[in-house]
Design a protein that fits this description.
The structure holds two protein chains of two kinds. Chain A is of the alpha+beta class. Helix content of chain B is 70%, strand content 0%. Mean pLDDT of chain B is 74; it is low at 48-60. Chain B has helices at 2-27, 36-40, 49-59. Classes of the chains: A alpha+beta, B mainly alpha. At the A-B interface, helix 5, helix 9 and helix 11 of A face helix 1, helix 2 and helix 3 of B.
Chain lengths: 798, 60
């Protein structure tokens, strides 16, 4: 038995992409390939001696099934578009950066950096793996931009070229600036500490001049720390104050100023060595915390709107000529042509006889919708099959789908108060209060100590440890969740998750799996029937036919002798002398009785005998019931764009009292979330398609569920890999636990502050004590936060 | 004791040299992508010449 299983498991996988060769098996050069595309890439690489690609990693390629792009990139010959995309161009050199989502392994880097051996005219190419980008320099006289893109697409690395990246400007400098700030602060910190060693060890015998010299060197070293490395804190504190808002940067800026001012004073008046070591150490640690918090998933985009889904250009028809125009320039009445697998950019009227439009991205529905001449076609769908002509009736930005982005939700900057800013209000007032009480006390007792003690209070109360607690706790938590394929936009999302009360789900593509349908045949089929069906359905590219082909396993490989596809009706195939009809009930039986329920059906007859029909049900994600039960401590709701056919199924595992709404338009979903928020709910929205985009944006936390992390997802706060949806209960519990960890870290840093303050108010704070206390408190808090977060994650099985 | 001042100055110059090297590294983008260089250095540039000729023949 075990042996048998082993044999069954040994599926032949494609040498190039590693997928199982299910539909066809092509043997070439003693290697197996799953499709012609993969074989072609192998041939290209083999010819050019680039088979090293396969040595670095097994089956590194990207499947090329269902890819064809005859004229897909024709728009890249348009000069305006070219100018927008190219970073630099001259007679003999053009530079461009592409975002290539399919980069995933070292072989990818290798191949993409050897493009110059593949084609003349490419000068160099370089991969940025973290950002999934390739920068290519090429000679425009030898090779056109279009050819470059086609070459990339041929080897399986189709770049993402769309409206959004054409309009986006790159901001790389932000991170570099932080690195520079950290480097300089660290440099100053260590050097000042080293120079202060005689001071720490109490070398009284040191020459006065030397001591003074060292102090002035310290000032020079600390200048870039104060004016460059910590500039962000001053700017942020000022901005906050200008808006009458006290953020955590206010006490930090106060502390830095007090440290620097007091040190300058002491050094100039020869009264002491100052606290410049504490100052630069403080800034250094703060910046490390900031860097830790800013580590985000650079290769993922959380800001995508419809622009990154829509094409850059379409072919417009002017009389007999075709012209490539930018999508944004389309106006009402324009006639355009949309080819197979291209996206319809704007609402339009179908001018061709018929069309099959796949709205899977918009609604999550896998089957294509049939349209007839004169029908209205909404933007966002993809044409499947022959090219169609459309007359635009609404501009791109005014279309059914895109006008969602004109709503207020997309204009306002989401602003929420985080925990640390909340605390900092009280913290700052507390510090100022203690400082003034100390000042008054010493004024009465010993006026000589006023300056000394007041500045000491400001110095020691500087919330270094406090402001490190949040970044390290949340940063670690974010990394752990990322390892489990829940990618958060930033650490603020975790804070939002603490407060949630209501979870809203989209149905198709979120609760159910997006593409693979549950195909079920009602009737009896013999193996011979299956062979006939498989041969017939294999001829069609219609999504339903594909699902049937995938489901029906043929024992022999036969080809249909005669094959006809009637759009909107069905298929007719003659196989081995048997006539097979597959399709709508009208096509197969000639009658039109309604099948119970609202499900999609495909009927079948062989040699005129009606055999039964296929149904395509929704497939729920694994462990959906357990997941929902786990989440039912929150209020739940389902918003579906579909009809009510699944209501009964959903009601089975959703707790009573959950809201369920069907036939929801994108705006309806947005409005529902808005109204819930007005009732005081904090909402998490799970969605996948463009039609959820408004709701995802409006929700306090919008989570986009996707089967392919590098594929398009609408703007959201987090991206979740669909296969890990059933862990969501665990993730939320973990997110909530981080709040307690932060509060515990706060407690620790308050203890340090308290100890420091007691020294400060009594005017006993020495530079050495400050230089030890401040790093020590920071390190304790960082170590505590990191350790506890990881320990809790481990305990919860993450 | 003034030798200490000279030493401090020399030490400072050496340290500044490293700081400048770091600043240059950041500015030239060496910290922008920390993954691909680690992979890139392992690539061989071997060219299996023989195979190429054989292939060309068998295909034509």
């Amino acid at each position: 038995m075990a042996r048998l299983k082993e044999i069954e498991k040994k599926v032949i996988t494609c040498y190039h992409c590693g997928e199982a060769c299910e539909e066809e098996l092509i043997e070439f050069d003693d290697k197996a390939f799953c499709c012609n595309g993969c074989k072609m890439v192998y041939e290209i690489l083999d010819e050019n001696d680039l088979c090293n690609y396969y040595d670095l990693q097994n089956s590194p390629g990207i499947s090329l099934k269902n890819r064809d792009f005859e004229e897909k990139f024709a728009f890249l010959d348009n000069k305006e578009i070219k100018d927008k995309l190219l970073n630099y161009t001259s007679e003999s050199l053009s530079k461009i950066v592409f975002h290539v989502p399919s980069i995933h392994c070292s072989s990818c880097i290798w191949l993409l950096e050897h493009l110059d051996t593949l084609r003349e005219g490419i000068i160099t190419s370089r991969v940025n793996f973290v950002r999934k980008e390739v920068s290519i320099d090429f000679n425009p006289q030898e090779i056109s931009l279009k050819t470059v893109v086609e070459l990339l697409a041929t080897v399986g690395y189709e770049p993402e070229i769309n409206l959004q990246n054409a309009t986006e400007t790159k901001t790389k400098s932000e991170n570099r600036r932080l690195y520079l700030q950290i480097g300089i602060a660290g440099f100053a910190f260590l050097n000042i500490m080293m120079l202060s060693f005689p001071e720490y060890l109490g070398f009284e015998g040191l020459d006065q001049d030397i001591q003074r010299f060292i102090s002035y060197v310290n000032i020079v070293l600390s200048l870039p720390v104060v004016f460059f490395s910590s500039s962000n804190y001053f700017v942020s504190a000022y901005k906050g104050l200008a808006q009458r808002y006290i953020n955590i940067d206010v006490p930090i800026a106060l502390g830095i100023s007090a440290l620097f001012g007091r040190s300058l004073y002491e050094i100039v008046t020869y009264s002491g060595a100052g606290y410049l070591d504490s100052l630069s150490g403080l800034v250094f640690f703060l910046l490390i915390g900031k860097w830790f918090q800013s580590k985000t998933y650079e290769s993922l985009s959380f800001e995508r709107d419809y622009k990154s889904y829509f094409p850059l250009a379409v072919s417009k028809i002017n009389g007999d000529e075709k012209e490539v125009v930018q999508v944004m320039e389309l106006v009402e009445g324009d006639l355009i042509e949309v080819r197979n697998r291209e996206v319809i950019p704007a609402d339009a009227i179908l001018m061709s006889a018929d069309a099959a439009i796949d709205y899977s991205f918009v609604t999550g529905e896998a089957e294509a919708i049939q349209k007839k001449n004169g029908d209205r076609v909404y933007a966002g769908g993809r044409q499947v099959g022959h090219p169609i002509r459309l007359q635009i009736i609404k501009e791109v930005s005014q279309s059914y789908l895109t006008q969602l982005w004109n709503s207020d939700t997309f204009q306002q900057q989401s602003k929420y108060e985080n925990l640390i800013d909340n605390i900092s209000k009280y913290f700052t007032f507390g510090v100022l209060l203690i400082a003034s009480v100390t000042g008054v006390y010493w004024y009465l007792v010993d006026p000589g100590n006023i300056l000394n003690s007041v500045t000491a209070v400001l110095i020691v109360a500087c919330p270094c440890a406090l402001s490190l607690a949040t970044p390290f706790t949340l940063g670690n938590a974010m990394t752990i969740l990322g390892r489990h394929k829940l990618y958060l936009k930033n650490t603020g999302v975790l804070e939002q998750l603490w407060k949630i009360t209501l979870i809203v789900f989209d149905k198709t593509g979120t609760l159910t799996k997006g593409t693979s349908g549950n195909v079920h045949f009602h009737g009896i089929l013999t193996q011979k029937d299956k062979n006939l069906i498989s041969a017939t359905a294999a001829g069609s590219t219609h999504p339903l036919s594909r699902m049937i082909t995938a489901e029906t396993i043929a024992s022999v490989n036969i080809k249909a002798g005669l094959f006809e596809e009637h759009e909107g009706l069905g298929l007719k195939g003659v196989v081995d002398g048997h006539t097979v009809l597959l399709g709508s009930e009208k096509w197969v039986t000639g009658t039109n009785d309604e099948v119970p329920g609202n499900t999609t059906t495909v009927h079948l007859s062989i040699d005129g005998e009606v055999k039964g029909y296929y149904t395509f049900g929704n497939v729920y994600r694994q462990e959906i019931e357990e997941t929902i039960t786990e989440l039912s401590q929150y209020r739940l709701a389902v918003l579906s764009g579909d009809n009510e056919s699944e209501r009964a199924n959903l009601a089975r595992f959703f707790p009573d009292g959950s809201d369920m709404a069907f036939k929801q338009k994108p705006e309806d979903k947005l409005a529902f979330i808005k109204s819930q928020q007005e009732d005081g709910n904090k909402v998490v929205m799970f969605g996948d398609g463009l039609n959820d985009a408004g709701a995802l944006k409006q929700a306090d936390v919008g989570i986009a569920v996707t089967e392919d992390i590098s594929a398009f997802t609408p703007a959201s706060d987090a991206i979740l890999f669909g296969g890990n949806f059933h862990h969501m209960g665990k993730y939320l519990k973990f997110a909530k636990a981080t709040k307690k960890i932060i509060i515990a870290s706060f407690a620790i840093s308050f203890i340090y502050n308290f100890v420091g303050l007691s020294f400060a108010v009594s005017a006993n704070l020495t530079p050495l004590f400050a230089a030890v206390l401040m790093p020590l408190s920071s390190i304790t808090v960082v170590a505590f936060a990191t350790f506890v977060v990881r320990w809790i994650a481990y305990k919860q099985g993450l | 004791m003034s030798v200490i001042i000279v030493l401090i100055i020399i030490g400072g110059l050496v340290a500044t040299g490293f700081l400048v090297a770091f600043l240059w590294a950041v500015r030239s983008g060496q910290y922008d992508d920390t993954v691909s260089p680690s992979v890139r250095m392992l690539f061989d540039d071997k060219k299996p010449e023989k195979k190429k000729k054989n292939k060309k023949k068998s295909q034509s």
